[in-house]
Amino acid sequence: MVKAYLTIDDSPSADFMGKVEFLAAKKIPAIFFCRGDLLEKRSDEAIKAIQMGFVAGSHSYLHKRHSTLSITEASAAIRKNDELLDNIYAKAGVQRKWKLFRFPYLDNGAGSFPCAPENLTAEEKSWLTKIMSDVVGSCVMPTAAQLAQKSALQEVLEELGYQGLPDITSSAYQKGFGKFDINITYCTDDWHLLTRHQATYHQTADDLIAKVKRELLLAETSSPQVILAHDYGEKEPDEAFRLLVSFMQESGVDFLSLP
User: Fold this and answer.
1) CA–CA separation, 184 vs 200, rounded Å?
2) Per-residue confidence band for 221, with pLDDT thresholds at 50, 70 and 90
3) Each residue of 82-102: pLDDT tens digit?
4) Considering the entire predicted model, what is its pTM?
5) Measured distance CA(51)–CA(53) in Å, rounded
6) Which of 32, 122, 133, 161 is most exposed, with the fewest beta carbons within 10 Å of its own?
7) Which residue range forms the structural domain that includes residue 117?
C-alpha cells in the first residue's frame, strides 16, 4: 500500500472551500500551502478549514521564484506570511503545532534544481531532475550565488521554527532538498491542465490518472510519498483534482495525517 501526504499549493482559491468540503467528506487529511496575497482575500475560509482539522502551511507571501528575489525580499515575504498564518491560527482558536513551508515552484533560492549536484549519485540526480522537471517544466543546475541564497533562506526558516516532514527517508529527498521546508516526491502535473498551459501540454485528467497508475501506485519505497496538487480555482484542474484524489483513494492510497 502506498502511504502519502496530500499537499496542495496556491490556496486559498475560489474553489478552496469546495476542496475542503470534498476532502472532509472523504475523510482525507491534507496540507494546504497558502499564499499570502490569497490569504488576505479569504482569511475566513482558511480559518474554517483549520477548525475542520486541515493544516495551513506557508507558500510565502509572494508567489515568485525565490531565486529571483534578493535575500532581503525573500526573507520579508517568508516572515510576512508567517505573521499572517499566526494570526489566522489564533483567530481559529487552534494551536499551530506544525509550521510547514513550501517555496513557490519548489525554488528554495537555488532555482530549478535544489542543490549542488556534485554530492549526488547518478540515480539521485536523475530522480531530482525528474521531480523538478515535473514541477516547473525545466531543470538547470544552480550557481554558487543561488546555493548561497538557498542556505540563507534555510536559516530564516529555521529561525522561524519551520520543520520538515519527519519520516521521508528517500536519500535523494534528504540530500537534495532543504531541511526546513517541505518538498515533494510526486507531482500530479495538474498544472498542465491550466488554460495557459494547454497549448503546450494538450493533457486531460485521464492522462494524469495514467501517470498515477504508472508512477505512484507502482512506486517501490518504504518512505511515504509527498504528493503535489494545486488549488487553482479553474474548472479543468479543479475537476481533475477531485478525480485524481478519488482514484488514489479507491486504489488504496493511505493518506496520512501529521503526527
Assistant:
1) 24
2) confident
3) 999 999 999 999 999 999 999
4) 0.97
5) 5
6) 122
7) 3-255
